Amino acid sequence: MPENKANEPRIINKSGTLKMTDKVAATKEARDMSGRPMRRNNRRDRVRADVAPKEFEEITINIDRVSRTVKGGRRMRFKALVAVGNKKNKIGVGVAKGGDVTSAVSKATTKAKKNMITFAMDGETICHEVETKVTGADVLMKPAAPGTGIIAGGVVRSIIGLTGIKNLISKSLGSTNKVNIAYAVIEGLKQQVPREQWSTTAVKKAAKKESK
Fold first, then answer.
1. What is the reported pLDDT for 111?
2. Which CATH class is domain 120-195?
């Protein structure tokens, strides 16, 4: 038997007007002010930018407020230090200034992407021990066994976290300037040489061939 419409619950808005039920709303067609049915945009080729996966991850390491004395007084600006990596063997660091924090971070990110380097890895750690010095900053990095984790602090940990390195021992020996430490870390990663290209490894391989 058909349902009795009189027994259906009446839903009333706060203004006192009758509110249509979900069943009625599903059968209604949206119309514009002139009474024509509105066209729905069902295009599938439009994909939101935030849905697409990001190739690189970025992190803002530090933001400083800097000033410059000019004729009219002091000019205040912001300096941003940003690192960009792909969680594998690509990493870059950029430093830029801007009138506000957003513009400074945006400029620094662009610079970091332009200055990206590709370094060699030995599994989930670096290939060998390295010590690099940039101005006053002196950074020592050593490879570590699986399960050690990243034993580093501050800037070094932030940069290494954007790479595929999972095990590392590091120590900052010199200046605490974050920009110089960041550049020292990048220089240390750039100097990594794969085990196959070590001079000792090449000599051992040549000796084995001669003995055969």
1. 95
2. alpha beta
